[in-house]
Amino acid sequence: MFFDLKHTDVNSKARAGVLNTDHGSIETPIFMPVGTQGTVKALSPRDLKEVNASIILGNTYHLYMRPGHRLIEKMGGLHRFMGWDRAILTDSGGFQVFSLKELRKIDDEGILFQSHLDGSYHKFTPQLVLEIQRSLGSDIMMVLDECPPYPSTRDYALKSNQLTIDWARQAREIFSGWQPLYGHRQWLFAIVQGGTFKDIREQSARALMELDFPGYAIGGLAVGEPKDEMFDITDFCTEILPEQKPRYLMGVGMPDDILEAIERGVDMFDCVIPTRNARNGTVFTTEGKMVLKSARFKEDTKPVDANCQCYTCKNFSRAYLRHLYNANEILGLTLATIHNVHFYLWLVRQARKAILQDNYVSWKERILQKITRVVE
Ligand SMILES: NCc1cc(CSc2ccccc2)c2nc(N)[nH]c(=O)c2c1
After folding, report:
1. Identified catalytic residue from 9, 91, 257, 267
2. How far apart are CA 99 and CA 245, in angstroms?
């Protein structure tokens, strides 16, 4: 069974489960570090294993653009190419086309766009993005979808949703006769859209459920809408989606967003925040967020987080990390990234423990008091 739902917290919709892939089992709730170009920036696969990452993300758009999915296929697939033998999830690429703001034109067949690298024209179709993900060999693939901008008119959200459902239908058809390239199984997730319109969200979820996918992503959120709307739509979607299938909230989020979404029945998360913030000198700790470049840490001999067991916190001081940032030293990026990814993975592991003990909500309230502070 691809997804085992082990337990649902008695006081909320928070769930503990296991995703079984041919590149290992993944305990949920899970955070997936983003490795856009076949690397989680500043980390080696060895670092990722040391922080117990069980699944990372690759980006179909970027890898298609460079070095190209055919080259990666020649290299034996993305796992071998990047030296990562645990699980990989890849996005379909449509979202990246929209967020790169290059010329793009959507029609019933797919998305026509210009490369951000050399200006060449390309067209992502439901079939092409699956071919690319087949060449990459991702364990979990995403269908091509359109993520409507926020805000969108109701009319736009309706039309866009119809297209996303049509594209998902084509993808499901291709997937029904699926022959993986490298011998390991590949799973296909659908993506629920519909903006912040609940009736369109329901239409989307029910149409995709009829097509029976192994898992369901909630897309089109964390695109600028107010947080309470994001959580309200998330809660609404998880009410409809199959209980026995994994739910993936795309592109979310800050540590507190993830804890709120877990309470509303989400199992999988990805976000660039831990890796991007680390590169900018901001780290997350059990006592709150910390801007390491700040002068207040100039002579601070304490570790980033005294409660953290990561390599960075066990071996280096805040003063040293601040020095590395000021000196523009690459090691600073690596050490802060190790810590932040470790923190996110630790947080969701703690969440899972609380769920299994049926005290997720009280645990969440306690931890939120601490991690949402700013360390002065
Ligand atoms: N900001 C939210 C968000 C993020 C991503 C990207 S998630 C990602 C990023 C890199 C690698 C893998 C997954 C999305 N992807 C798709 N296909 N559809 C969405 O609505 C959407 C919304």
Report:
1. 91
2. 28
Measure the N-to-C terminal CA separation of the chain; round to a whole number of Å: 47
CA of 39 to the centre of ligand 1 (A): 17
User: Using one digit for the tens of pLDDT, what is the confidence trace for 215-269?
Assistant: 999 999 999 999 999 999 999 999 999 999 999 999 999 999 999 999 999 999 9
Return the structure tokens found at 2: 């691809």
pLDDT band at residue 370, thresholds of 50, 70 and 90?
Answer: very high
Q: Is the dihedral of CA 318, 376, 260, 155 positive or negative?
A: negative
pLDDT higher than threshold 70 for residue 42: yes
Q: Could you give the ipTM of this predicted complex?
A: 0.97
Asked whether 188 and 175 are in contact (CB, 8 A), the reply is: yes
Residue in 250, 252, 268, 270 to alter for ligand 1 test, most ligand atoms within 8 A of Cβ? 250
Q: Which of 9, 257, 267, 270 is catalytic?
A: 270
Q: How many CA atoms lie within 13 A of 189 on its CB side?
A: 29
Residue 104: predicted pLDDT: 81
Rounded Cα distance between 280 and 259, Å, is: 24
pLDDT for the residue 102: 57
91 is catalytic: yes
CA 42 to chain centre: 18
pLDDT band at 340 (very low <50, low <70, confident <90, very high): very high
